[in-house]
Amino acid sequence: MLGGKGWCAVAAPIRGYGPTPKVPIPLHACDLRDRITTIATGGFERRGLDASVVILVGCKKNSSMARRKSIRKVAKDFQSDVDEVKAFAAAARGALSAQHTTWAYEYAIIRLYRDFEDLILNALKGAINNDTSTLSETVNIEFPQSLSDAVCEYIITGGGYFDFKGRDGLIKTLKSFVPASHYIVEIVKKQKYKDALERLSALRNFATHDSELSRTKARAVVNQNRIGPAGAWLKSQDRLEGIADRLKQLAEEIETEALY
Fold first, then answer.
1. Cα–Cα distance, 229 to 152 (Å, whole number)
2. Which of 100, 141, 171, 176 gives a 20 to 30 Å CA spacing to 187?
């Protein structure tokens, strides 16, 4: 079955089972910018395997085994996440000391960043899952019509975690997997979201690391010569809420544009 028409597989050593087995590998389906995509369809731990194993990549062409991923739901979930972050910050402001409120706002920007990362990763997975031609057009590689959620995630992350470096890095990452004309790219590139995206990344890094480099970058994006702790800046003048509301608006646009 691994060598059957419409399937693609990756050959890699199986731990404790001798040399690399030989499996037919259609190069056009497996060589994604020199990334060897190895996806365990049943889970590495459950099957007693690690990442270096011969496994099936994707699913058979014209197969219905891959369930469509709803980008609308992903966008709606993020909007709920934004509301929860804002509610947490408001509760902290009303119950904690000034210092503890500052810390709470630093956690809030970290949490907001994490939720936004999840939004983008799952929106990308949905874009590929629902129409693999978007990925094929970008990387000039033919993919099966259907790809599982796990395969889509591996294509994006390479088995690591999803991350991006600021707004420009986010746009670059998006364009690595979908065309520049894709609605997700066009929405993220809108000027009205620029400040929120840049501040989200810079202030999250500042809250996380509190280094001189992160402080310098935070000062640059907020256009101030001096800046105190990230949480102190965020809790003043409803700045966290402003960033959160703008990102929520971005998600609302994605929800509106998504076909599914």
1. 38
2. 141
